[in-house]
Amino acid sequence: MAPVQPGDVLTVRSSVPAGWGRVRSPAWWIRLGSALHNAPDLSNHVAVAHHADEHGTLWCIEGRPGGAGWRDARPYLESPYTLDNAAQPKTEAQRLAVCATMEALIGAAYDWQAIVADGFTDLGWRLPGWDPSWRGTVPVQVVCSSAAAYAYAKAGLPCPAGERGCQPADWDRFILARAWGQR
Q1: For position 6, what pLDDT does the model report?
Q2: CB 46 within 8 A of CB 5
């Protein structure tokens, strides 16, 4: 396995927050939606590796309900459920471009409409009026998986399709199939 480097995507199964019952956990619902949609249900979250600090801590950037921001990647890397695309070929310029785009998204609001649309999609329905495209504009709202897809597309790297509709399961499928070599 290749070591995770800046610009690599991590798909993770986050833990159930304290006080949440297993069935009420957003993480559980995201994985259930993936299973209902006949997609991999390994992960419910996506983060992008950014840099290692002077202590060797790998930091990532992720979309989350409080807005896109920084996260210590150690718990993700220690989980047996975490997948990564470290084997996907990337130039140094592409890695830098992915990281710069993710930095630019820090503070971007959470895309709640995309979350609702994802739930509808997982049930086989379409959210009325839903447009998953950013129409060539910079996203001002993201979810974890769509932020990573946007950064990869902007860097010219293969990634799952779907723009705003990209889900963690799409990244799981992409990584498990090593789909970066199939285009």
Answers
A1: 98
A2: no
User: Over the stretch 52-82, which tens digit does the pLDDT of each residue have?
Assistant: 999 999 999 999 988 999 999 999 999 999 9
Domains of the chain: 9-177 (3.90.1720)
Residue type, 99: C
Which tens digit of pLDDT belongs to each residue from 88-100? Answer: 999 999 999 999 9
Tell which residue, 118, 141, 150, has the closest CA to residue 48: 150
Q: What is the DSSP string of 65-103?
A: TT-SEEEE-HHHHH-TT-EE-TTS---HHHHHHHHHHHH
Task: Give CA–CA dist 155/153, Å, rounded.
Answer: 5
Residue 111 vs residues 68, 70, 107: alpha-carbon distances, Å? 10, 17, 12
